[in-house]
Backbone:
């Protein structure tokens, strides 16, 4: 398994395999390609309540796959503004399009200074390459 | 060191995610993924490399009485070309393993056991060997492939040199596929009404598998990994050693065991008989003293998740815990066959108080959440050549 999974430029990454994309005042969060591949078919997502507060690298939601349960951590502290309700009927969207239709939550009211604790695509790819 | 089946290279080339399972490199899934492989098996068919399982050859003039003394089912009910589910019990009625016994021809048997128990089974059987019995481990001589699902019969009919074994579960016979001679049996562990197991020689297995894969692909029959193998057996309520069967749990706590235990008085003594009779009496009497807990099927009635080890409550009182569970995909049936839509649902087997009644509403605790569920008789029913999922959200019991 030497293939380094996709990690698009322009996103921020955590070592727990979440990605984050800043869109104006919002930060969209999802699972990386590496994470969805490791989990296998995803069958259930326990999303956070809208308006709940999360802390950087605190537990945010749970993704269940045919293999295991995975805690998903908030890449930034902030408030959950929106959750991807399409995942309720179609959790497989995470497997099919993890950087697009398979996003998990949108955070608002976050501190941009915390972005410095995250990795860019190059650093994340390096982490993947070292791990394999 | 992790061992390789004769299909190791094939699995790797096909993109199988290889893991160590009971000391063998086997694919947990291929590129299609576990859910697609499960669904393909139910709609068309699946190919399974089960060469990791243990295969023991038993021959000789005393083979039959020896098998009858050590196995829980009665091998005297077999005829050449028949097979039966059976168990290896210890004297206390605890399972050493569950197994399948195939009578290939007169005086020639093959006993197939779980990979994880093979070494212990081998030792146990050798310790109890008696005169007039030739007992050999053929695990590295024969491979084992399974072809399971509604189109499996059509696929095999197109490839075999001789006619298929007569219809009906457990029938088998010798046959040839691509010039390779092998035993073939209408057996398997997916619950599929049409199912086959093949026993080609180890060094010819890849050629046989390749033919099956090539001819199967246009039919929608695909190779299936361990992940879907497990969800297929679970959806069919088939027990697995180490989960439902445990070395310290009475054999008869697992309902399927009744298919593999023959307590007919005419049969005489066999290993574990008295203990198994006491367990059977407890079941029949409803006193359950020998058998305080037994295995039931539990279906969730809402979206969510449950897994092995999850606690099961009824009205807030502990009832037991799940021995196998996960979310399992199912086709929506249209006109008596799988349609184009599927869904997933959490299903499990659970060790519960023996007095639990089918239909009982339960709560399943998983990661601090509570999922509503129900004790049910089965998750599926045979529908012609298909295995149809029973849906529970409509209040059906």
Residues:
């Amino acid at each position: 398994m030497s293939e380094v999974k996709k990690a698009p430029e322009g996103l921020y990454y955590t070592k727990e395999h979440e990605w984050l994309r800043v869109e104006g005042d919002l930060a969209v969060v999802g699972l990386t390609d590496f994470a969805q591949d490791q989990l296998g078919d995803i069958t259930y997502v326990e999303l956070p309540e809208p308006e709940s507060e999360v802390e950087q690298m605190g537990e945010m939601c749970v993704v269940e796959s045919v293999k295991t349960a995975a805690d998903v951590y908030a890449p930034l502290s902030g408030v959950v503004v929106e959750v991807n309700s399409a995942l309720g009927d179609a959790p497989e969207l995470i497997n099919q399009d993890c950087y697009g239709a398979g996003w998990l939550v949108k955070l608002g009211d976050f501190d941009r200074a915390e972005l410095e604790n995250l990795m860019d695509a190059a650093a994340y790819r390096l982490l993947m390459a070292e791990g394999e | 060191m992790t061992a390789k089946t004769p299909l190791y290279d094939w699995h790797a080339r096909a993109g199988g995610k290889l893991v160590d399972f009971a000391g063998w490199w086997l694919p947990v899934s291929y590129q299609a993924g576990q859910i697609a492989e499960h669904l393909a098996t139910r709609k068309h068919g699946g190919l399974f490399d089960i060469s990791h399982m243990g295969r023991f050859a038993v021959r000789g003039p005393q083979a039959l009485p020896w098998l009858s003394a050590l196995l829980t089912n009665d091998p005297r009910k077999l005829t050449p070309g028949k097979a039966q589910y059976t168990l290896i019990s210890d004297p206390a009625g605890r399972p050493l393993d569950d197994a399948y016994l195939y009578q290939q021809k007169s005086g020639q048997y093959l006993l197939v056991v779980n990979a994880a128990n093979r070494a212990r089974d081998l030792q146990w059987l050798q310790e109890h060997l008696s005169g007039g019995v030739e007992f050999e481990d053929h695990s590295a001589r024969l491979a084992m492939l399974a072809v399971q699902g509604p189109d499996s019969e059509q696929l095999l009919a197109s490839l075999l040199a001789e006619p298929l074994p007569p219809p009906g579960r457990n029938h088998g016979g010798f046959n040839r596929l691509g010039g390779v001679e092998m035993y073939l049996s209408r057996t398997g562990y997916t619950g599929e009404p049409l199912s086959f197991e093949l026993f080609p020689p180890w060094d010819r297995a890849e050629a046989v598998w390749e033919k099956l894969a090539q001819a199967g692909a246009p039919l929608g029959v695909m190779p299936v990994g361990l992940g879907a193998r497990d969800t297929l057996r679970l959806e069919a309520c088939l027990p697995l050693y180490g989960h439902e069967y445990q070395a310290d749990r009475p054999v008869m706590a697992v309902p399927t065991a009744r298919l593999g235990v023959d307590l007919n008085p005419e049969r005489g003594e066999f290993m574990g008989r008295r203990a198994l009779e006491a367990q059977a009496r407890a079941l029949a009497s409803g006193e359950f003293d020998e058998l305080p807990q037994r295995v039931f099927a539990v279906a969730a009635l809402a979206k969510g998740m449950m897994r092995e080890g999850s606690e099961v409550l009824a009205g807030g009182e502990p009832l037991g815990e799940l021995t196998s569970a996960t979310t399992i995909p199912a086709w929506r049936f249209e006109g008596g066959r799988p349609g184009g839509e599927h869904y997933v649902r959490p299903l499990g087997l659970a060790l519960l108080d023996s007095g639990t009644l089918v239909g009982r509403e339960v709560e399943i605790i998983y990661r601090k959440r509570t999922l509503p569920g129900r004790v049910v008789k089965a998750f599926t029913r045979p529908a012609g050549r298909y295995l149809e999922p029973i849906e529970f959200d409509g209040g059906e019991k």
In short: Chain A has a mean pLDDT of 93.
